[in-house]
Amino acid sequence: MSQETLTPAVLTVTEKGVSTSRFVDALRVIARNRLALLGLFIVSVGIFAAILAPWISTHDPYEINIAGRLQAPSAQHWLGTDFLGRDTYSRIVFGARTAFIIAAGAVFLGALFGVPLGAIAGFRGRWIDSTIMRFMDAIMAFPGRLLAIALVASAGGGFTSLFIALGLGAIPSNARIVRSAVLAQKEREYVEAARMSGESDFGILFLQVLPNCLSPLLVRLSLEFAHAILAESSLSFLGLGLPPPTPSWGLMLKEVTPFLQLQPLAAFFPGLTISLIILGFNLLGDGLRDIFDPRQYER
Amino acid sequence: MMLEVKNLTKYYDISGGLMSRLSAGLKLLKAVDHIGFSVPEGKTFGLVGESGCGKSTTARLITRLIPATEGEVFFQGRDILRLPKREMRELRRHVQMIFQDPYASLNPRMRIIEVVGRPLSHFQGLKGRKRRDRAAELLDLVGLRPEQLDRYPHEFSGGQRQRIGIARALAAGPKLIIADEPVSSLDVSVQAQVLNLLKKLQRELKLSLIFISHDLNVVGYLADIVAVMYAGKIMEIAPVAQIFNAPLNPYTKALLASNPTVGSYMETVRSPLKGEVPLPVNPPSGCRLEPRCPIRVDRCKTIEPMLEEKRTLHRVACHEV
Fold first, then answer.
1. Taking an 8 Å Cβ-Cβ cutoff, which residues of chain A contact chain B?
2. What is the side-by-side order of every strand in the sheet holding B28-39?
3. Confidence of residue A1 (pLDDT cuts 50, 70, 90)
4. Chain A residue with Cα closest to B170
5. Of B280, B273, B319, whose CA–CA distance to B296 is shortest?
6. Among A189, A199, A212, whose Cβ lies nearest the Cβ of B105?
7. A190–B105: do the CB atoms touch at under 8 Å?
8. Residue/partner pairs of A264-270 with CB below 8 Å, 24 or more apart
9. Confidence category of residue A298, pLDDT binned at 50, 70, 90
10. Quick one: which of A114, A203, B76, B285 could link to A199 by a disulfide (CB 3.0–4.6 Å)?
């Protein structure tokens, strides 16, 4: 009988869940952490909205109807309309697409350069480390948003320059995180063992060490995603991001601010969306941090 | 001879920054100081000593996991320490290592098939099905089940992990294996199993083995020749029976006396040596053991004793023997 009570939790991991046990562990920790679950839910809704935008929107996000401008929410327009009579709900849904594409691009760019640079700096050490990291410090010395504003102002708005502006700012922090993780890992015996097994430096770093550095990076990337979405919104709000009539949350907010007294709800919904998504990513990031905390794993 | 070590030396500069270097002078930690020994083909060479005496450093110097300050290591006539990088990687096929900590020495993100399979692809050129078959054979050889190939390290116990470490070392097809305290982090009951496995493999595969341990009993069980290290120096080298029955160096005698054996509880409580093992930072010019030695004389303070053959095949570094 005592065996009955023991087996389900323990045995599924050791006997059956050969490859997925770590993943299952992770899901289990998420499930225990209600806030992280909420974060995961919000983020998932955002991602689904972005992917399914054309199918779940009720109107064409570009369709102008001056007669029906600044309406309150109704059965026809779920979240009301903006100053040109465009459907706010549909624009928010398509705005998710904009936000996620730009955030994904920026995070990808930040990781694409930040991860290898940090990995090499940590692994090789000495002057290579100093050179790379001083360069990263130089980028970091500029406040991120200011750097982005400067880049966008000089190169013009649009998707590409936003990717670059936001991605560039993310490179140094990724490099730092990966570097410190590599520094911690490279002294472990399995690295020596890999060298004895005939692995090259490249193989040791990218096949053996780096996979063990992913946990802190993943936490970082989820927070960076939130950061990039917020940055895109604020740049667009300042008129430095995407040009109208692109459905972008920041732009939507900016476009209706002059009419706040007439119809406060027109600004309320885009603002709420931005806040919720940022909250979702932060909750998820905190949850991921809990999962990857080694103390959690020891149990 | 399978392996000949001459004048092998590792100094660490621990002076710190420029300021402390100028004020306090150069501080050298002489982790391994001009040691020499040779390992005959098909034999087990035991290296004993307390923690911090330079045993593990010696292992890493021989395999070039860390660079030596000085010295030569001849493997089948070629000086390992002077091989170009590429040839060194090639040479690791013949010289393999088993690590101390079976938890740290297996990459937690790699399945066993990869742990054992990577040396198979690097050194034997095996791929796919053939690699898998050979890896399964190796697991079988070390007493694990071939079905366990797709598991991750965290699904194994300490003893099983050490078996995986042994399989990985064997995968390269080595002639010489250096085992750095392979059982010291295992439970005593598991220690015996792993030791027996090593002994069996060594005999069957005609391997040469350098076995490093702080535990005299363990070394006595496996080794043909034993070297005793103290603070970066070799104090005594002799066939195992002579070390145990007729030790000459006072340090070896003290080690043996403090070695717990069943039935001798009363006599072994007290170690004949007082004090702690000193870290060999800027050691005095004389004998390293001098401050703690029960039979020291004046010249021990100034003149360093060399390893000399005092009996047949029995070399000791001590003025008073």
1. 14, 18-19, 21-22, 188-190, 192-200, 208, 211-212
2. B28-39, B3-13, B70-75, B78-79
3. very low
4. A197
5. B319
6. A189
7. yes
8. A265/A72, A265/A73, A265/A79, A265/A80, A266/A70, A266/A80, A266/A81, A266/A82, A266/A83, A266/A88, A269/A79, A269/A80, A269/A88, A269/A89, A269/A92, A270/A88, A270/A91, A270/A92, A270/A95
9. very low
10. A203
* Option in A189, A208, A211 nearest B99 (CB): A189
Interchain CB distance below 8 Å, B118 and A14: no
**ipTM of the predicted structure?**
0.85
User: Does residue B137 lie within any of the structural domains?
Assistant: no
| Domain CATH for B237 | 3.40.50.300
Decide if A198 and B89 are in contact by the 8 Å CB cutoff. yes
Q: CATH topology for A21-298? A: MetI-like fold (1.10.3720)
Q: Which of A196, A212, A298 to mutate to probe the B interface, most B CBs <10 Å? A: A196
Q: Which residues of B touch A294 (CB under 8 A)?
A: none
Could you tell me the pTM of the whole model?
A: 0.79
pLDDT of residue B271: 60
User: pLDDT digit string (tens) for B207-242?
Assistant: 999 999 998 888 988 999 999 999 888 999 999 988
What pLDDT digit, counting tens, does each position of A270-294 carry? 899 999 999 999 988 888 887 776 5
Which pair of tokens denotes residue B210?
């350098």
pLDDT the model gives residue B289:
87
State which residues form the domain around B194: 39-67+84-94+174-275
Task: Tell whether B16 is covered by a domain.
Answer: no
- Give the pLDDT confidence score for residue A72 in this predicted structure: 80
Give yes or no for a contact between B16 and B25, defined as CB atoms under 8 angstroms apart.
Answer: no
Best to test chain A binding among B105, B107, B118, B126 (most A CBs inside 10 Å): B107
Of B106, B155, B171, the CB nearest to A14: B155
List Cβ neighbours of B136 (8 Å cut-off, separation of 6 or more). B146, B149
pLDDT exceeds 90 at position B97: yes
Q: In angstroms, what CA-CA distances link A142 with A152, A171, A198?
A: 15, 13, 43
Which residues of chain A have a CB within 8 Å of the CB of B60?
A: 192
Based on the structure, what is the number of domains in chain B? 1
pLDDT of residue A223: 87
